[in-house]
Amino acid sequence: MLKSDEILEKLEPDSKDVFVEGLIDMYINRSDEMKNVCLADFASLYNISKKKTGYTEIIENSDNEDIIDDEINDKNTALKMKDEKGMRKDFILTPEEKQLKKQRLEENRRLSSAVINNNIKSENIIEPITINQNNALLDNTRSHSSTFLTEADRSCLSHIQNAYFSASQSTPSASSVISLELASDKMSTFMNTIDIQNFIAIKLINFLREIPEFAQLDDDDRLILVKYNLTLLFVIRYSLNFDSAREIFYDVDTGEPVSPSEEAFAQYCKSLFILCYGYEFNRIAMSIFHALTSIVNKDPIITQLLMLIMIFSKGLSANDDQEPLLNDEKRVFYAQSKYTDLLFRYLMEQSSFEVVIIKMTHIIQQLLKIQKISRDFRQYIKSNVDLTHVNPLMKSLLHLT
Questions:
Q1: Beta carbons of 224 and 324 less than 8 angstroms apart
Q2: Residue 203 has what pLDDT?
Q3: In sequence order, what are the beta bridge partners of 67?
Q4: How confident is the model over 365-390, as pLDDT tens digits?
Q5: Residue 223 has pLDDT above 90, yes or no
Q6: Crossing angle of helices 95-145/13-28, nearest 10°?
Q7: Sequential DSSP letters for 56-112
Q8: Is 368 exposed, middle or buried (0-12, 13-18, 19+ CB in 10 A)?
Q9: How far apart are CA 141 and CA 136, in angstroms?
Q10: CB 309 within 8 A of CB 340
């Protein structure tokens, strides 16, 4: 596509005035919108030729608007030019030259019209092209997002879900065993709250046994990780089935609708917790559950991956006791890194990078709060509970021995 200045350069010297005259004629007969396009061409031609055409002059008025002063119709100016320069013979045209000039004028009008139409057409297609390019970029981004998880990753996630479901089914729920009758004394009430945690601990241990990275550790390392980290997993598990409106959590893992008996047991547990540990402790715990619920968003995969990351995090409990060293720290660190990376890429499948970073930061914040509330819980149990009544598993997990 040739622009007006390019066309002017290709014309013969005696045709340039004719071409410019054609542009002027087009300007006069165009609408205001098209005049702006023509004026751009006039400015370009003026900068190249550095002279006035003798037919028109582009000037700028006080309102900064370009106007055309048609000197050919100004008789006084024409007479003045004649007096100053005299009548040149080369300005006198024969009929044949006039006809040739007319043909050139028509041709130049046609070329100028083609330039303007092409410019307008180009402007009209810029936006659709940009939109198409943006759509293509979005499609490529979506296509790329599907590569965050490999087939091996999806197989691993499927195995984790099956292991969690199998462990949940292998152990009866606390609601099916513990009576809803009020205990005869406060110590018995304390024991009921601890026994409820005992059922959860057994389910989580059975779940961990099905995880290859955990099963490959030696007995000592498995014991250390469970003893010091398992109770912190309780809070994460509760967040999956937490009713934020009523501030109760259900002892269910199947995703099925809550039965009336499970509803009653959830209310019973809430009452026991407040009775034994007080409203202030309950308020702190509920704030953590609310925050975790917004992060997990009822997604069991996020919950299960978080629990695996936590169990393989040496020193997570921040216990006052001297925690023993692991025999194979590298294997444990590898497992923690694997599931942290898997959680990150799983979240990337659902959200943008910025959202995932914010979510991971919030997870770390809540883990620090879980550390503190777990330590306070253990200290409270030591100070208020007769340890002879605590079952051996929970006595070990709460470091009461």
A1: yes
A2: 95
A3: 59
A4: 999 999 999 999 999 998 888 888 89
A5: yes
A6: 70
A7: EEEEE-TTS-EEEEEGGG-HHHHHHHHHHH---GGGPPPHHHHHHHHHHHHHHHHHH
A8: exposed
A9: 9
A10: yes
- pLDDT tens-digit profile of 100-121? 777 777 766 766 665 555 555 4
36-38-43-44 Cα dihedral, nearest 10 degrees: 130
pLDDT value for 32: 54
Residue 202 confidence (pLDDT)? 95
By the 8 A CB rule, do 345 and 148 touch? yes
Q: Give 45-58 pLDDT, tens digit per residue.
A: 445 444 444 444 44
Residues 4/115, Cβ–Cβ less than 8 Å: yes
Eight-state DSSP code of residue 249: E
Average pLDDT for the chain: 77
C-alpha dihedral sign at 250, 253, 259, 261: negative
How many residues appear in the chain?
Answer: 401
Euclidean distance between CA atoms 162 and 171, whole angstroms: 15
CATH 1.10.565.10 positions along the chain are: 151-397
Give the class (CATH, top level) of 151-397: mainly alpha
Torsion of CA 210, 212, 213, 216, to 10 degrees: 100
- pLDDT(10) > 80: no
Q: What is the mean pLDDT of residues 268-293?
A: 93
Residues 74-92: pLDDT tens digits?
445 544 554 444 444 445 6
DSSP type of residue 30: S
Q: Concatenated DSSP letters for 321-377?
A: S-PPPPS-HHHHHHHHHHHHHHHHHHHHTTS-HHHHHHHHHHHHHHHHHHHHHHHHH
> Tokens representing 355?
């959202």
* Of residues 185, 201, 192, 283, the one with CA closest to residue 238: 201
Q: How confident is the model at residue 251 (pLDDT cuts 50, 70, 90)?
A: confident
CA separation, residue 180 to residues 67, 243, 274, 278 (Å): 94, 20, 16, 20
